[in-house]
Amino acid sequence: xxxxxxxxxxxxxxxxxxxVAANAGAMPSYGADPLTRRVEAQLNAIFExxxxxxxxxxxxxxxxxxxxxxxxxxxxxxxxxxxxxxxxECGAPEFFSAGGKLVGLAGVGAKLTPAAxxxxxxxxxxxxxxxxxxxxxxxxxxxxxxxxxxxEIAAIAGVAHEAGMKxxxxxxxxxxxLLSLGCTPAEMTWRAGVDCLSFGGTKNxxxxxxAVVFFDPALAQDFKYRRKRAGQTVSKGRLLSAQFDAYLADxxxxxxxxxxxxxxxxxxxxxxxxxxxxxxWPTEANEVFVLLPQQTIAALRAxxxxxxxxxxxxxxxxxxxxxxxxxxxxxxxxxxxxxxxDQFVAIVRSIAVQGQ
Length: 356
Prior knowledge:
The chain has helices at about 15-25, 35-45, 60-70, 85, 90-95, 115-125, 150-160, 175-180, 215-220, 225-230, 240-250, 250-270, 295-300, 340-355, and strands at about 50-55, 75-80, 100-105, 135-140, 165-170, 195-200, 210-215, 280, 285-295, 310, 325-330. The protein folds into 2 domains: about 15-250, Aspartate Aminotransferase, domain 2 (3-Layer(aba) Sandwich); about 260-355, Aspartate Aminotransferase, domain 1, CATH 3.90.1150. Strand 8 and strand 9 (about 285-295) form a beta hairpin. Helix content is about 40%, strand content about 15%. By secondary structure, the chain is of the alpha/beta class.
């Protein structure tokens, strides 16, 4: 019963096989190989237009370098206060932007709203004492497992663009959000006003591979230098590209995310059916957030379940924690088994029945 993260599992067998195959023989280095060209073509097709694509090895590099392409040293970026960019990257966006400031806003379910963004911008005094906002970052799916609909993205992007900001999407769980919404990659990104995307692979079946995808070509002009300076221009670039080549081929990336989402729905529905158990937020991707009594949390851990307790900052006011409750995050992956889900739910149910 391991629900700590989708990072704790390995890679898809198809990805490993492709990596082994790419390892044989010789190919041009530093991304000049045919596999990289093929991945670039695949992403052009997926997004229904020509995009600028740069492969990197980690999500931190993807987010930090993408944000740095939008935000100068004297500028600032708006994001949710729980977003990965501001809360989990050890200051990398500030470092690679040479001092750009990140400003986090509150929002239920870790989601920003056009009204909250507009209100914050209206309160900015201007002048040279405060850095001007040059970027905005959305997490899709969010750190609370919720997703932005295309119309929500478009409304937020509209406010951002009107204020002179570029829009970045942290798509570490891009595939999971996409399947939840049932829209196309284009509809969830550039058609809704996204200028730059961190396209995740590692959490969904790659060994270590992420892509920075630019829809605004101007932002990509100097990115090859940013990537090199950050130590993310991999000499044996084909070993990054091979992962994405297998990941994207025949919609394998969507099949992997579909399994994870289905597992999360099974877990969410099972827990929601237990008397007295509340979900913190709707289950819209591959993460389940549930409010559990501390006694139940202790019993689950004693039974071998692994998970993280989570912050309650983004709960709706009506869903505030009880005196003995905590928020628990449960993440499903492309290899999560029904048996471990059912075992987890059975433990929660048995404790609830005992307490009646």
